[in-house]
Structures are given as structure tokens and as C-alpha cells.
Design brief:
Elements (H helix, E strand, L loop, with lengths): L5 E3 L6 E4 L5 E3 L2 H48 L1
Antiparallel strand pairs: 1-2, 2-3
């Protein structure tokens, strides 16, 4: 099995290129942690939006039911 070798990416501190695959790899743990935190926050925000949309749709459905019941009561008089 061959050893993995990397080359520094010129002009980009904290980045290396995997010689065998050509992949660019970040070696900066702080940037990676910041990326993960940002992604986690984006996912939380997306979940909040989805929850709010569901709640709004539920309220719309309940309002429609109330409206239908009121119409039945009005026509019954």
C-alpha cells in the first residue's frame, strides 16, 4: 500500500492537494469547525421555517373548518 502524499496549494494557506486523487483538502481545523457550526445553524433555521409553514397550514385548515361550521349554523336558522 502506498503512502498518501500531499502538496501545498500555492497561495492558499491551510489547503493541500492529494497527489493520488487530485482532491483539495482543508487542513485548517478552525475553518472546518466554523463551517460545521454554520451548516448546523442553517439546518436549524430551515427546520424552524418548515415548522412555521406547517403551523400556518394547520391554522388555515382550522379556520376553514370554523368557516364551514358557521355557514352551516347560519343556513340552519
Amino acid at each position: 500500500m502506498r503512502g498518501v502524499s500531499y502538496l501545498k496549494v500555492q497561495g492558499h494557506e491551510g489547503l493541500v492537494r492529494d497527489v493520488s486523487s487530485g482532491a483539495i483538502i482543508s487542513t485548517n481545523d478552525n475553518e472546518y469547525s466554523a463551517f460545521k457550526l454554520k451548516r448546523e445553524n442553517e439546518l436549524k433555521r430551515q427546520k424552524q421555517i418548515e415548522d412555521q409553514v406547517k403551523e400556518l397550514n394547520d391554522l388555515k385548515s382550522e379556520m376553514l373548518e370554523i368557516k364551514q361550521m358557521l355557514n352551516i349554523l347560519i343556513k340552519g336558522k
